[in-house]
TrEMBL record:
Name this protein carries in UniProt: DUF5085 family protein
Native organism: Bacillus salacetis
Source domain of life: Bacteria
Pfam name, any one: DUF5085
Length: 153
């Protein structure tokens, strides 16, 4: 397990938010896939999501992000929104988090590491899906609390 400090930055993002159970994390990606065709935008980076627990029944809020090539205008009543950037300046990073049974175990591992090393982290994470040779690898970023401006989740 190689946990280190890192940052996460993307600009020009399409976002989609939904309430759901952690185990249903893949559901929001279908919405983003359709978006590429409907809005004629071009993906220029890996898709990723964040999850914030509601403490009620294992559900929480997912926000999915699709990096695109330029700023777009969206209708105010649309489920899909444009976001200028996500900027997490300091986070604990676990590369290839798929070595664990699921990203929940990877997240717990980072939380344990943070506790053992006196690092205060937020109760949210970013899970970045990297496509490599027809396979998916996961990077998990857990923002360090109190490290300045952070835009996004």
């Amino acid at each position: 397990m190689d946990i280190r400090r890192g940052s996460l930055y993307f600009d020009h993002l399409m976002t989609y938010s939904m309430i759901g159970k952690k185990e249903d994390w893949q559901e929001g990606f279908a919405v983003l896939e359709e978006l590429e065709l409907e809005q004629r935008v071009y993906k220029n980076g890996p898709v990723f999501f964040t999850f914030k627990s509601n403490e009620a029944g294992g559900e929480g809020e997912f926000t999915y992000y699709l990096p695109i090539n330029e700023e777009v205008e969206m209708a105010g009543d649309s489920d899909i929104q444009y976001q200028e950037k996500v900027d997490v300046r300091d986070a604990l990073l676990l590369r290839q988090a798929d070595q664990y049974q699921d990203f929940n175990q990877a997240y717990d591992s980072i939380k344990t590491y943070a506790s053992e090393n006196g690092v205060d982290v937020e109760d949210s994470f970013y899970c970045v899906l990297l496509e490599v040779y027809d396979d998916i690898m996961l990077d998990l970023y857990v923002p360090v609390a109190g490290t300045g401006d952070s835009y996004g989740a």
